[in-house]
């Protein structure tokens, strides 16, 4: 399934709404870093805040779905994730239902993307939910004409049915809704073969580590660090088509906050300062890779650091490599490891030659 997270809530209407998340598979949601202490989240007029852990549940594993209620009238919309019954595609949708789980306002359903691995695992999608009052038009006579003109109706019509409330809900991609100065960490699976494992190890229920590639997106451009054929050239590359890659598989974007730099200042920062510090020859799979680059660039932009679940595998690898080196050095000091390995020195020399040849090819 495609995992759907609501990461920002905005209310531009004069009404108050209640959101109730009842999903046993996910932790309690937070608003601006603070846990929700009541059994529901109140969204008053003018509300605008970040959300964490507010997951729209998979329809097969949830009893109630994500419940949205208008406080005055009490009408309810249930939100869930699942495929369309009459669709032949492999896509999941954010679906809207009434209290009895009958579908409502299908034209406002949001397509989340395709599933993979026999429909069991998919990508993670971050959405912004905006409560927005629909504009209603009332006819008025046009002087000297038999026609009627339509004017926006100023009177507030509070939704009293699920189908009406559904039209007040506007879901949009967080990346496309955020200001241009927002710094995003774009996370990719290293290859299609690693997508399933990454989804098992890193999801909304558990975040450990995974095999990821990462880039920084800012002002519509994506910056990444790569090993080049010529080690002396710059390792920083720019893409004008963010979240697309011929090898790596896009997984999700993580909002790291906003930068105070303008677009021109950001470009000068990368070209004049950062690029000089990241030549291709610095690239090391464990100790100096694309994720280290993203962490450095995010810091220079005044954004939050790369999350631990993205860094986890590389930090674990670096720690393991340090332990191996320490153990090897300790063994040398104590006199261990002086005997040649089985197969003799010739075999050892052949292995070294093969290793050097492999290193030269990479």
Automatic annotation (TrEMBL):
Family: Belongs to the DeSI family.
Claim: Transcription is one of the keywords in the record: no
Keywords (A to Z) from UniProt: Hydrolase, Protease
GO biological-process terms attached to the record: protein deubiquitination; proteolysis
Pfam family, one: Peptidase_C97
Organism: Symbiodinium pilosum
Positions of region (Disordered): 337-362
Protein name (Swiss-Prot/TrEMBL): PPPDE domain-containing protein
Gene3D superfamilies: PPPDE domains
MF (Gene Ontology): deubiquitinase activity
Domain (PPPDE) ranges: 181-322
């Amino acid at each position: 399934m495609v995992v759907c997270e609501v990461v920002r809530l905005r209310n531009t209407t004069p009404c108050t709404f209640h959101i109730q998340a009842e999903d046993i598979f996910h932790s309690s949601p937070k608003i601006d870093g603070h846990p929700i202490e009541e059994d529901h989240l109140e969204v008053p007029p003018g509300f605008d805040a970040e959300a964490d852990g507010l997951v729209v549940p998979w329809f097969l594993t949830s009893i109630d779905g994500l419940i949205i209620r208008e406080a005055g009238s009490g009408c309810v919309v249930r939100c869930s994730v699942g495929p369309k019954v009459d669709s032949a595609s492999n896509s999941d949708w954010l679906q809207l239902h009434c209290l009895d789980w009958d579908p409502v306002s299908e034209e406002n359903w949001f397509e989340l993307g395709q599933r993979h691995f026999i429909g069991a695992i998919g990508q993670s999608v971050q959405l912004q939910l905006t409560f927005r009052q629909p504009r209603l038009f009332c006819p008025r006579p046009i002087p000297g004409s038999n026609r009627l003109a339509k004017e926006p109706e100023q009177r507030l019509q509070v939704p009293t049915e699920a189908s009406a409330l559904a039209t007040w809900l506007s879901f949009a991609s967080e990346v496309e809704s955020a200001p241009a100065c927002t710094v995003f960490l774009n996370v990719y699976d290293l290859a299609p073969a690693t997508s399933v494992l990454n989804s098992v190890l890193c999801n909304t229920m558990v975040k450990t580590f995974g095999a990821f590639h990462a880039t920084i997106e800012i002002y519509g451009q994506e910056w990444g660090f790569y090993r080049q054929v010529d080690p002396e050239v710059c390792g920083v590359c720019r893409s004008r088509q963010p979240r697309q890659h011929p090898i790596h598989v896009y997984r999700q974007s993580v909002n790291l906050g906003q930068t105070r730099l303008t677009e021109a200042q950001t470009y000068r920062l990368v070209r004049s300062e950062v690029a000089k510090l990241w030549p291709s020859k610095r690239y090391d799979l464990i100790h100096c890779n694309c994720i280290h680059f993203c962490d450095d660039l995010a810091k220079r932009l005044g954004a939050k650091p790369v999350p631990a679940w993205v860094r986890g595998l590389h930090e674990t690898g670096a720690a393991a490599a340090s332990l191996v080196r320490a153990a090897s050095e300790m063994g040398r000091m104590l006199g261990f490891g002086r005997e040649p390995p089985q197969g003799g020195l010739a075999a050892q020399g052949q292995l070294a030659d093969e290793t050097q040849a492999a290193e030269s090819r990479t």
